[in-house]
Each structure stands twice: as C-alpha cells, then as structure tokens.
Specification:
By secondary structure, the chain is an alpha+beta fold. Helices cover about 25% and strands about 35% of the residues.
C-alpha cells in the first residue's frame, strides 16, 4: 500500500512579518500536497484577537475561519479526518499540533513534553485505520534548547515503545528544531526508524570513502527546510518504520516562502 505524507510548520497561519492571515492560502497549499496524511505544527486552535479583526474581513485572502485551523483545513477535503493536540494556552487562544488524514483515526492522545513553563510542547499520537492495518503517527514539535530537546526525545522514544511495540508501522514527523542534527542517530538506534532523506539525499562519494577508511558510517543528513526563503537549517523531519521510501522532496520556492518560515516536506511511502 502506498501512502503520501507531508509535514509542515504553518507558523500559526500568519505571515512572519506583520502577522497577516495566510489561512486560505495555506488550505490551498496543503491540498497541493495530494497527501494522505499531513502532520502540522503551530496550528491555531483558537485566536480571539485574529478572529475579531479578520473574521468578517472583506478581503477573502485575509479570512480567519470560524472553526479551528485543523478543522478548516480538513473540511470537505481528501483529508476529512483530523485530530488536534493543544500545547500552548494563553488568554486569547491556544495552538498546538494537528494531523489530517484520509484514513479514519481510531484514537488520539497528546503527550505533554514541555521542558519548562515558558515553552509548551507536545507530541500528538494518532492511530490510523488503513486498508493494510494500523499505522501509528506522531506529530512532533520539540523545544528551542538542546538539553530540553534531548529530554523530549527520550519521552518520544518511550511513548513510541509503549504505544507501538513489536515493530508496528510508525511515522514520526514534525519540527525537531535540531539545529546540529544530534537526534537522528538516537532515534534510529532506539526505534529502528529511517529518515526519509537517508537514502535519497546527496552525499559526497569522497567523503563516504574517507569515512569508510576511518571505520565510520556514511554521513546522513535531513533536508534543509528553514528559513523557507533560503533553506539552510535541517529542522523538519519525517522518520518511518515499516515503510519503503520512494520519494522525498522539500517544497521550496517563492510561493512557499510567503506562507510560513518553514518549508514543507512531502514523501511517498510503501508499506513494507
């Protein structure tokens, strides 16, 4: 069975400058993924101020939906099923992670992995009922500080081992904020996952040869996704277990740079 997946940090549905709504444009962009499962971070579940200002805006491009963003994106689309994990809560609203799926969501649970009071983070776990059986999906948004990300990664590993034992198919995707790429090996070793660019990314044959002489494994690196206008940092990832990776690509370019500060990743998988 083939599954097309995408991950995207949508920056709460507003532009990086001036916080202008981009919700309608994002809805159209997400549809362009043609994905069966979409992992979203920084999804606005409620924002009273934006709703008061833009809810009845005459310019359609600046519309602010009546419903939560994940429900608005799902709507009558291919990804009619959705789940939301609320992470950050404030007086005028809240935001968190979300999953859109064309497959029924059997159940969902949001794991609070906040490392301190000033940065709320979560891991949204959803179990999908696909024609080939259950698939466990984890929407991830880790913290900005390296020590905290390490502790959150341990919580992610523990959550996966408890909820998806015996090598069950797993997709872990989101914004890992892993500026120095220190977490991938830990996830590979602990969970048996593969990052979608591990076998598809460009590598230096000379570099691989030198590492071979030194008894070191070839260097594996995720794709560059941040900032979207000129991707340099490798923050966004899709890790899988029990799948063969056919295609993986970063959706970069001027259009995507206007929608969010992160570029989305899309991958085509086959259940092994």
């Amino acid at each position: 069975m083939k599954i097309r997946v995408a991950t995207y940090n949508i920056h709460k549905g507003v532009s990086s400058l001036r916080s202008t709504p981009r919700v309608l444009a994002l809805k159209k962009a997400i549809a362009e993924f043609h994905a069966d499962i979409v992992f979203l971070q920084e999804v606005q579940g409620r924002h009273d101020r934006h709703h008061a200002r833009y809810g009845q805006h005459k310019r359609e491009t600046r519309v602010w939906p009546e419903t939560a963003q994940h429900e608005y994106f799902a709507g009558e689309s291919h990804n009619a099923h959705s789940a939301y994990g609320m992470n950050a809560v404030y007086d005028h609203g809240h935001h968190g992670n979300a999953l859109l799926s064309c497959f029924p969501i059997e159940n969902s649970h949001n794991h609070d992995v906040s490392d301190h009071a000033y940065e709320q983070r979560g891991i949204l776990h959803c179990v999908l009922e696909t024609p080939a059986g259950k698939v466990h999906c984890y929407v991830v948004h880790l913290g900005l500080f390296e020590s905290g990300r390490g502790r959150q990664t341990e919580q992610l590993i523990e959550a996966v081992n408890k909820s998806a034992p015996n090598g069950e198919p797993v997709i872990i995707a989101g914004d890992f904020n892993d500026w120095r790429n220190t977490l991938s090996d830990r996830l590979r070793n602990a969970l048996g996952v593969t990052e979608v660019f591990d076998g598809l990314g460009k590598r230096s044959p000379l570099g691989d040869m030198v590492r071979g002489w030194a008894g070191r494994a070839p260097r594996l690196a995720p794709a560059r996704t941040f900032p979207a206008a000129l991707p340099w940092f490798r923050l966004d990832r899709i890790y899988v277990r029990g799948f063969k990776i056919d295609i993986a690509e970063v959706m970069a370019g001027p259009i995507w740079a206007k929608l969010s500060d992160h570029a989305p990743i899309v991958a085509e998988l086959q259940l092994a």
